[in-house]
Amino acid sequence: MRAARAASWLRAAPAVFVMAWGGNHFTPLLSLYREIGHYSVMSVDLFLATYVLGLVPGLLLAGPLSDRYGRKPLTAVGVILGIAASIILALFFRNELLMCAGRMLAGAGVGIGMAVGTSWLKELSTPPFDSAADATAGARRPSLALTLGFGLGAGASGALAQWGPWPTTTPYVLHIVLSLAALAALAKAPETVSAGRPTTSLLADLRVPLAGHHRFRRVVLPAAPWIFATAGVAYAVIPMLESARLGTMQLGYATLLTVLTLGTGALVQPFTAHINKATNGRAVLVGMAAMMAGLVIAAVNAHYLSLVAGAVAAIMLGASYGIALVSGLVEIQRIATGRDLAGLTGVYYSLSYIGFLLPMALAGLAGVASYTVLLGAVAVLCLGCLGLVAVGLRRTTA
Question: What is the pTM of this model?
Fold first, then answer.
């Protein structure tokens, strides 16, 4: 019985994994769409931005809906939305409007995965579903499932597009197949929320009072947007800057940087608890310091355009992404009550994904200043936010 309970989270984890896969396997294909679809840099960065337009509503709506109707059905909806997105992206890659629509659906699916799926995995990592899990499993397992999905999805899709047949189709077919398998596994996963007759309106459920918590405002809020802003620099901005030197290997290099970024993020996540303990609960500052270092390397490399330095920057930004993501989730789980967990997680990820607008903002400003100047300015802003978080940690308690 204990082994069966310990395995409960493993039945739900594949769904979170494929939702993350479906959100990020598009990223290394940006250079492919610039070449085959003849899209501009601004257009492909727009695809990243429209992803956020689907993701944020998914994050904010899915949590309260799952509190009413259960984690399991909402997670299944997220997987199905991801399948629909892959179908659209595979069939209509020359239509910019439909590409944006597909990316919005993918974003909505990932939003459900991040708000509902991660809360579900957290609940499945506690008694009575898993009595053997350690204290950080509830933050580590969801974050790892997401990061592996993001990283492996990007790696597999990039490799298939670079060396496989039908580069604009095969990556999406693979995601659809994996998603159908995840739905099958999901059928046997236990529900953690008792769906009953609602006692409040949905509008009331959408309110997340703990988003005004002093520690959330002073610690989580200044750090959250940098999580995916710096990841976006690693696998959207750096490959674009290096593209003139790469010839036919643009897609391969973009895939490499995406895998390095997210793979490093996945590798460091299990160590975040040790970093948090060693720094007396200040792992988020370590993550932000790594962000600044990665941004400085990326800024200098925007002038010199070294492939090796680009990879080093991606590794540094990936490490910062992994540490900051898990430390933020730990903060959320310290602040939230059981009823507020999904909603506050949704707010946290919504703030995090605002950072995906950074590559498009940089592309829009590229006519005003060089990427070296722009990325240097971003590093300075990151330093300012690090200072705010440091002050917030000193003055607040969860």
Answer: 0.80
